[in-house]
Amino acid sequence: MKKNILITGGAGFIGSHTYIALVAAGYVPIILDNFCNSNPIVLERLERISHLQLKFIKGDIRDSKLLGKIFLDYNISSVIHFAGLKSVGESVEKPLEYYDNNIIGTLNLLMAMRSANIQTLVFSSSATVYGNPVSAPISENFARCATNPYGRSKLIIENILEDVYQSEPGWNIACLRYFNPVGAHRSGLIGEDPLGIPNNLMPYIAQVAIGRRDHLNVFGGDYPTHDGTGVRDFIHVMDLAEGHVAALEYLYSKRGMLTVNLGTGHGVSVLQMIQAFEQASGMKVSYKIVNRRPGDVAECWADTTLAEQKMGWVARRSLQEICEDAWRWQSNNPNGFNS
Ligand code: NAD
Ligand code: UDP
Active-site residues: which are they? Predict the structure, then answer.
């Protein structure tokens, strides 16, 4: 029988792409989202891509009653938990809102899962839990440390999940530490649609290419990297989405607790990304090299050996595919979902 999976935050960037990967793998995903950082239009787009009527509940993970009702009504077998606030800068300004949404929200979800006897959870963690890593590639046993409230919320949740796993038999939990998710579904119907000025590199580049922004500020040209600009592990969001399916399948078959990096295992610099995007789009991406952004590390990329060993998962899509898909999304939807 097909398994019903609740995806909290499923209308967001990564959740919406994971919806498609879950359907393709034969699961029945049910989305819970309050749209605090997403657009309801994504739901119609998901129906167009999947040719299926979507199951959706508008609501907040901090609403215990609602969670209890969803678990009862939909016979949920496991939860993929994306819902949360994710901006580092905003978390410094509004720590209480971040702790409330991310930590209280997760506690509430865990308690509702316990009451409903649902014990399988995949959690969206982040490479941010490595703080300022001493070297790259980064493996899962590197020291963890948080440098801002957002990162602290992820670290605290990882610790809570470890405690829950140790204290109560029967839990199956995957903490997936994402590196830099980018790109879009190849249909060009869904993608990343940040509100206001993008904080992240990829959507910023795409908005320069389409003419919404004049130029990109490259934060730092004097890092000890091969071209002086920052190096990151950019992973296609559909590879990441498939990583969630692999994690679920691991939990169903092997059970237990799993903490793994989801990245490509390769670093790409800011200048390399600009060049790849220009090539894929045929558009010019003007840029200026400016001061470093406070808090940024020079290089950060994943050791992905464990994910491959444990789940048989590797990222398959190339940088060119990432840029082509991101450009298809951006050029078909110049103003995001509100185009
Ligand atoms: P996103 O903001 O696009 O998606 C999050 C979704 O959760 C949004 O649709 C939002 O409306 C919803 N949401 C937030 N709080 C909610 C609540 N209390 N109740 C119900 N819905 C709520 O973000 P994303 O990029 O898809 O990230 C998903 C998860 O992955 C987040 O937990 C994020 O911290 C984590 N993550 C993201 C990245 C990244 O670069 N995008 C990297 C590492 C980890
Ligand atoms: N970056 C940049 N200009 C921007 C946004 C990002 O030069 O407008 C650089 C940033 O300094 C880092 C890389 O691009 O070296 C990736 O940044 P992003 O914010 O996307 O991811 P993170 O720093 O969280 O890994």
Answer: 150
Ligand nearest to the CA of 105: 1
Ligand nearest to the CA of 179: 1
270 ligand 2 Cβ < 6 A: yes
What was the pLDDT predicted at 266? 97
Distance of alpha carbon 9 from the chain centroid: 10
Report whether residue 37 contacts ligand 1, using a CB cutoff of 6 Å. yes
- CA-closest candidate to residue 21, choices 326, 317, 318: 317
Beta strands 299-300 and 257-262 are unpaired
Q: Which of 123, 334, 319 is nearest to 208 (CA)?
A: 334
Tens digit of each residue's pLDDT (9 = 90 or more) over 102-130: 999 999 999 999 999 999 999 999 999 99
Whether domain 4-184+234-264+301-315 has CATH 3.40.50.720: the reply is: yes
Q: Tell me which of 296, 301, 319, 322 to substitute to probe ligand 2's pocket, judged by most ligand atoms within 8 Å of the beta carbon.
A: 296
pLDDT 10s digits, 212-234: 999 999 999 999 999 999 999 99
Domain locations along the chain: 4-184+234-264+301-315
Half-sphere exposure of 6 (CA within 13 A, CB side): 33
Q: How far is the CA of 222 from the centre of ligand 1 (A)?
A: 32
pTM above 0.90, yes or no: yes
